[in-house]
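TODO from last week: model Probable glycine dehydrogenase (decarboxylating) subunit 2.
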Amino acid sequence: MHNEEPPIFTYSQPGKIGVNLPDAGIASTPLPTELLRQDDLAGFPELTEPEVIRHFTRISQRNYSIDTGFYPLGSCTMKYNPKLHEEVARLPGFAAAHPLQDEELSQGALQLMYELQTYLGEISGFDAVSLQPAAGAQGELTGILVFRAYHLDRGDTDRTEVLVPDSAHGTNPATAAMAGLKVVELKSDARGNVDLDDLKAKLSPRTAGMMLTNPNTLGLFEEHIVEICRLVHEAGGLMYGDGANFNAILGIAKPGELGFDFMHYNLHKTFTTPHGGGGPGSGAVGCTAALAPYLPGPRVRQRADGKYEFFTPEKSIGRMKAFHGNFGMLVRAWAYIRSMGAAGLRAVSETAVLNANYVRVMLKDIYPQAVDRICMHETVLRGQIAGASKDVRTLDIAKRLIDYGFHPPTIYFPLIVPEALMIEPTETESKQTLDRFIATMRRIAGEAVETPEVLHAAPTRAPVRRLDEVRAARQPILRYDPIAIARLQSE
Ligand SMILES: *Cc1c(COP(=O)(O)O)cnc(C)c1O
């Protein structure tokens, strides 16, 4: 572990006190004995108030966020979150609404949910929307449970397989497995599309459906999407659209019209609700009229008298989340859609695609492209720099970017691309920022050839050096633990 300042806990001394409140002059009411702590607080650091304030302020400044810098994390759409949405979400009528408040007293909140359902349905070409799920992955689980309920309801009990391309996000096969179904992997072809022959060979009366993101995780538009949907439907299966890459096609193509039956929207990606330490997420889902009866409730509908009410679809798979989803996120997504308007949303995708292609074209002579095609909102390159020794890996390039003040792109995903570097600049970055990123990537390529040891040592200018990432993930220390800290310091 590397720290310029010694850890705050080393300042701990018995008897230091963090708060000095004057005596309020009010007699205290003794707590009942059974509520009193029975043993001493052991192992807690004892610090003064300024030491505690400096500790938390310092660690808060170590966070990297979209508000501090460029964040080209592919597949995550780390775009700027307009501050207007924060104002709107803080309006007391929304922020102070209680989830158990009567419908009559919550008409504004219900109207907002109803309108958001309608807008998302319109943008994606679907008939019905549920705002329940808390994340994309939960939206996926919702969709596959709905597929299963639909098949079982028709007495179609043998449909237990879900087709998933080998380029898919890990949540897709995980979802199918969690829903109790079997994952069948599909190969990609040389142009980065689903291999149609492999698809035809694996479709069967056991096919419950297929999960696909379009554009796919190579940042490429599936050139045979209409045919893929037709083939899956002919086999009696349903098409799940992973909507994480929706930022590429807003106002240009509607998944419902391409042939998808169901999709999730990552409101925290496409619709600018904060994520990456901000959150919480929101993974609303949309579907065709045929699947609408199975959606999780409550959904919102408008009564004949114009008022809004909650209802649960008749064959609903049940709730996916307590109360009404992550409501504050729904407010922000609504504000985004209203402030952009239809033309604005289309411009979002056009600019996102333009920015990704700009980065791609400016870097592809040194960082080879995974597939030599025009990309959508993100581009997948490879960290295999011509002239650099083989022991310079994509991981080294990513860590060196941290030294230059950039959040690294997604690396080693999709799994089918060796040394993958997946860059998603988004539409909210200026050309100056993109040029600075491109120049830095080119500079790192030069370092990879001339001073590879600098890359292997990176990052050297960050609060921590290179971590043992497996250990950090498997054995995280998430709260003050004097024994664990002492052990780390002695290493
Ligand atoms: C982000 C992402 C998901 C999962 O969404 P979460 O909201 O993180 O659960 C699924 N698929 C793809 C392609 C993604 O990028």
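Done. The chain has a mean pLDDT of 93.
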